[in-house]
Structures are given as C-alpha cells and as structure tokens.
Amino acid sequence: MRAQRNLVARSLGELNAAIFDAHLLILQDPDLLDHARKLIFDSKINEAAAWDQAIGTVKKAYLDLDDPYLRQRAIDITGLGDQVLDVLSGKPEVETMPLEKPVILFASDLTPI
C-alpha cells in the first residue's frame, strides 16, 4: 500500500495519493487487527478467512450508517480488503493497461488501484 501511495504521489501528486493515506490508517486500525487476530487464535481459522470476516464487519458498519456518503465508503473497504486477500493468497499484482490516447472509462465501482 505504501509503495502504491508513493508511486501515485510521484506521478500524480500528493493530493491524489491521499486516498492511500486513508487506506493505510484503516490497515493500522487496532480494532480491525485485533478482530482478525482473535478469529485466527480463538476460532482457529486461517489468516485469509479471518481477514475476510474482520473486513466484512467493518464494511457492514459502514453500510449501517445513516450518511449516504459514508455508506459509499463500504466500497473502499471492500477494495482494500480484497487487496489484502490478494497478498495473503499470493496472487500476482494487477497488471496495468497502458493507454496510447485518452479514453472514456466506464465502471460500476472504481478503487484506487
């Protein structure tokens, strides 16, 4: 995450890298990490399953909020959780698609990476 943040900061500026700062804070959340650890040690499940359940709890908390903007942040939580699961499972990094000219990108959801 730090490497991605630094790459974006160098190529697109600090303002555009700020989303990664928020993601780094989430990854350092003691409640999230303690929840995952507790699942690993008490429920005897592997780290990927524990992470998935712990991040699911955080996602649900966002979805339960009254504020529509904050509810939308559940998408960010899902993307972040998926990135960690990819690392835990040894999935290779996402390849970039070099674009030769400007394009219009259409997607239902976009994450920073």
Features:
113 residues; mainly alpha; 0% strand; globular
Describe the structure.
It is a single chain. This protein has 113 residues and is mainly α. It has a domain at 30-89. Helix content is 68%, strand content 0%.
Give the tally of β-strands: 0
Number of helices: 5
Terminal residue distance:
10 Å
- Structural class call reads mainly alpha
Overall geometry: globular
As a whole number of angstroms, the C-alpha radius of gyration is 16 Å
Question: Helicity range of the residues?
Answer: 55-70%
What low-confidence regions span 5 or more consecutive residues with pLDDT below 50?
none
Fraction in beta strands: under 5%
Q: Profile the largest sheet.
A: none
Order of helices and strands: HHHHH
Oligomer: single chain
Mean pLDDT: 88
List the helices and strands and how they pair.
Blueprint: H1 2-12, H2 14-27, H3 30-42, H4 47-63, H5 68-89
Helix pairs in contact: 1-2, 3-4, 4-5
Quickly describe the structure.
The protein is mostly helical and 113 residues long. The chain contains 5 helices and no strands. The termini are close together.
